[in-house]
Specification:
211 residues, alpha+beta, 2 domains, three-stranded antiparallel sheet, 8 strands, 13% strand, rod-shaped
């Protein structure tokens, strides 16, 4: 039965699938009151869905629950406040599911990601500089430790160096600087991991922006 000319009256008619993201009702408010241009069949992995997709403003919208079930996604919620899906990409038959984010949203998010990457790169440069200075300092305190040990053994041969105040001071300095170096190395690794994740996100967003 033809439904061209019918009005879209609700947000639950359909949406493009996404993984682990919520589809905000605000992002599709502009559909309300728009005419359905056509209905078209949908095939996933050569299997036709039981419901057709609709085309509004030259954009196709597929049936939410039918399509999500076919690709192994779970519909967490679907109401006038929004739609939330979760699941793994390619859960059924290697089906690839992409984000519903449009170019405008992607550009905004990309700007945020680039800003965060800049901040982390600056932090990485600072931590790297601190690590280099700490390593130089560590060489110095280790030299002081060896000098103190030599001095003690030459002047106090009957007293173990480990029982002297010089040992306590110099060994304490070595441990303190080594601890700082280790902490800084961990901070650097953490920043590098964050940057790696953001670079992945940036690449995904750039694909949407440039599509």
């Amino acid at each position: 039965m033809k439904k061209i000319g019918y009005l879209v009256t609700g947000v639950a008619i359909g949406c493009v699938l996404s993984i682990g993201v919520s589809v905000s009702a605000a992002s599709i408010k502009s559909m309300i009151g728009q005419k359905i241009q056509a209905e078209v069949p949908v095939t996933i992995n050569n299997k036709a869905l039981s419901q057709d997709a609709i085309i509004v403003n030259n954009t196709s919208y597929i049936p939410l629950r039918v399509a999500s079930n076919e690709v192994g996604l779970k519909v967490n919620s679907a109401n006038n406040k929004g739609i939330s899906l979760s699941g793994d990409s390619g859960a059924k038959g290697g089906t690839s599911v992409t984000t519903t984010m449009d170019k405008t949203q992607a550009k905004t998010e990309l700007n945020k990601v680039n800003s965060e990457i800049d901040k982390l790169n600056k932090a990485l440069a600072e931590e790297t500089e601190i690590l280099e200075l700490t390593k130089e300092n560590l060489k110095g305190v280790k030299e002081n430790y060896e000098q103190a040990k030599k001095y003690h053994e030459e002047n106090y041969p009957n007293q173990p160096f480990e029982e002297s105040d010089r040992y306590k001071v110099t060994s304490g300095s070595v441990k303190s600087v080594e601890g700082l170096a280790k902490s800084t190395e961990n901070d650097i690794k953490s920043i590098q991991n964050q940057l790696a994740e953001l670079e992945k996100k940036k690449a995904e967003l750039e694909k949407i922006v440039n599509s």
